[in-house]
Write a structure and sequence with these properties.
The complex is a heterodimer. Chain A is of the alpha+beta class. Chain A has 7 helices and 7 strands; from the N terminus they run H-H-E-H-H-E-E-H-E-E-H-H-E-E. In chain A, a hairpin with a 2-residue loop joins strand 4 and strand 5. The longest helix of chain A has about 45 residues. Chain B is α/β, with parallel strands linked by helices. In chain B, the strands form 2 sheets. In chain B, strands 2-1-3-6-7 form a 5-stranded parallel beta sheet, sandwiched between helices. Chain B starts with a strand and ends with a helix. The relative contact order of chain B is 0.17. Classes of the chains: A alpha+beta, B alpha/beta. At the A-B interface, helix 1 and helix 4 of A face helix 1 of B.
């Protein structure tokens, strides 16, 4: 079945924008914490200059906190870099587990906002397929976004990656909200269907086991 | 002179606790919480002049939380902080919060205190 590159491309731009905005928000938060830490250090020095006793322990804990924030920012930048480079090649050998890990990390803030936990489980360390890396990230994000709206607050979306014959299957489990046709009809949308076709993938919704199945071929364009 | 009482709400614990510490050093009575439920609970036992709320907190927007807190205490005033920089978000947030009381992180503490005094004098 055919698909429209125009629709896939438009959705891709929107996805890229959303993820970039979310990353910039995370960076802003790190900067805000560092700004307060630096401000407090300055306050403590000014107070000591005016004769107050210098609180060494507080200064040490602030230095630790700043180091933690720098590590956090470093991880954000690494993820951003991995995400940015996923558009480098239209077809690539892609580790699905690693890609899923990245998409889960990039979705972390959205999951927090919705009060949902994400719990990935891999049956193997690496499962590689030949596909379009960026579009795969986009599709995984669409599935995760839908899965997160299919659980109630405080609950967990399980994500299981397993090898199947001639490809990979990803299961989004524990979706208690998948009990009505109304919910299952919400995914995939027309745009998401184009993305699924572009990746020669397949989605199946099973309300009985409360799971969304995503099947990906070992190689696209063959 | 009566001490200003402020409730800070942000899911970044490190940010909100340090900010509260710095406000306290400046003679402001500042409490902090990291979620909406704790913010509502705080109002059961204490009265605050002002809430400084993050716009994006888990499960509810800061603007919605402001409305809930305002129902409990109609005299309470609010300043909002955001990490988001889109023009549309900023315009919509400023319209809800009131011009000048929708601040983009990182926020300078002295500027925040000026804004706090300004909104309480209104």
């Amino acid at each position: 079945m055919g698909f429209s590159w125009e629709i896939v491309g438009k959705g891709g731009f929107q996805f890229f924008g959303k993820i970039s905005a979310s990353i910039s928000h995370d960076i802003k938060n790190v900067l805000a914490v560092l700004n307060e830490n630096a401000g407090l250090l300055e306050d403590l020095v000014l107070m000591a200059e005016k004769g107050a006793s210098f609180n060494h322990e507080r200064v040490k804990s602030l230095a630790n906190s700043m180091r933690k924030q720098i590590k956090r920012a470093d991880l954000i930048a690494k993820n951003m870099n991995r995400f940015a480079h996923s558009v480098d090649k239209p077809l690539n050998d892609v580790d699905v587990c690693e890609t899923l890990e990245l998409v889960v990390a990039l979705s972390g803030r959205l999951a927090d906002m919705r009060g949902v936990n994400l719990e990935p489980l891999y049956t193997k360390e690496r499962i590689c397929i030949k596909t379009n890396h960026f579009l795969l990230e986009n599709l995984l994000w669409c599935c995760l976004d839908f899965a997160m709206t299919s659980v109630t607050e405080g609950n967990t979306v399980g994500i299981v990656v397993e090898e199947i014959e001639k490809g990979v299957q990803i299961k989004f489990t524990k979706l208690q909200g998948l009990i009505t046709d109304d919910r299952t009809n919400k995914f995939p949308s027309e745009e998401e269907n184009d993305l699924i076709r572009a990746l020669e993938a397949e989605t199946v919704m099973d309300t009985g086991v409360q799971t969304l199945f995503l099947k990906l071929p070992e190689k696209i364009g063959s | 002179m009566k001490k200003m009482r402020v409730l800070l709400v942000d899911d970044e614990e490190e940010l909100v606790s340090t900010m509260a510490e710095r406000l306290t050093m400046r003679g402001i009575d500042a409490d902090w919480v990291t979620n909406c439920e704790d913010a509502v609970e705080k109002l059961e036992t204490r009265k605050y002049d002002l809430g400084v709320l993050d716009v994006k907190i888990p499960r509810i927007s800061g603007i919605q939380l402001g409305k809930r807190l305002k129902e409990k205490d109609p005299e309470m005033k609010f300043i909002f902080m955001t990490g988001h920089g889109s023009d549309d978000d900023f315009k919509a947030g400023s319209a809800e919060a009131g011009p000048g009381y929708y601040l983009v992180k990182p926020v300078d503490i002295e500027y925040l205190i000026r804004k706090m005094n300004e909104i309480l004098e209104k």
